[in-house]
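Run log, item B.
One chain of 257 residues. Sequence copied directly from the ordering sheet:
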Amino acid sequence: MSASDFLVEERQAQIARKLAVSGKVLAGELALEFAVSEDTIRRDLREMAAAGLCRRVYGGALAPTPPTAPFNERTTEQPERKRALARAAVQFIEPGMLVFLDASSTNLAIAQEISSVSGITVATNAPLIASALMETVDLILIGGMVDPRVGAAIGGKALSDVALLRPDLCILGACGVDAEAGITAFHLEDAEFKRVIARRSRSVMTTATLEKLGTAAPHDVIALAECARLVVEQDAAADMIVEIEALGVEVVRASKV
């Protein structure tokens, strides 16, 4: 290994450590810190992104969203935190609405809280969410082959089914949420499905635990500005919230667990 290669590896290792701490880096700031050109930093970030160590955005990079377990496993993780998000979200569901609940462990918690709202119809592509709603609401189950990683039907049949819907409110599941990168997902077909149903809906809302804020998964869903409302945990970082609100998104903090 040449001396220059060592310097590149050391610089990229330091950038990775900064991402782990703050979740975001800016190319201009890194160029000043390491006394190199912004082109050099952008090349570093391209190489790191190719290795899955970051997600490039305009002006810098974001920490990658940590991989998640299959949907069935995620439903048992951090139940109180997800229940707090669910309670904050449910207040925006009104009688008479057609609501789409996307595949998400927090949306499963929303389904379990939704019995307090009367006269609604809920559509979902997630069988676990559907089973939680069968006795409480008018229910539409989107069909097709279920992807166990996502916990939902997301293929061609599911897309043709949602082409018949115009929900009043779509509550998207999000793998990553960031002002610059927007709402992102781990799987390509899931991202496509989310994008279609979001853009067919009159209003879009999503929720994000602390781990998802300021991170980006590999596949774009929609820009955050296309989301009317974001529900976050009580102790979400203030600087991230300011960035998101500047896009015109209403940010709602859930009650502390």
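Observations after the first pass:
- The chain has a mean pLDDT of 90.
- The two ends are 51 Å apart (CA to CA).
Flagged for discussion on Thursday.
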